[in-house]
């Protein structure tokens, strides 16, 4: 199975794409107008991503408390921005 499929191709091959993700751990990038738009990933990868995200949110809250602030002073959006920025810099 391809690593990238257009929306049209993904729609036509959806049962096979889902089976490949679930059984083989395959990741398929879905493109729109030739540009990556989304990805179909296995559930275990989503669970790991959510676990990592929770750890990062906890770290940010702990740092805010250690600096004398309160975690409630940060919005979830601000925390997510910090996580994504740190992740894109490879320092999370």
UniProtKB/TrEMBL annotation:
<dbReference type="Pfam" id="PF02604">
    <property type="entry name" value="PhdYeFM_antitox"/>
</dbReference>
<dbReference type="InterPro" id="IPR006442">
    <property type="entry name" value="Antitoxin_Phd/YefM"/>
</dbReference>
<comment type="function">
    <text>Antitoxin component of a type II toxin-antitoxin (TA) system.</text>
</comment>
<dbReference type="InterPro" id="IPR036165">
    <property type="entry name" value="YefM-like_sf"/>
</dbReference>
<comment type="similarity">
    <text>Belongs to the phD/YefM antitoxin family.</text>
</comment>
<protein>
    <recommendedName>
        <fullName>Antitoxin</fullName>
    </recommendedName>
</protein>
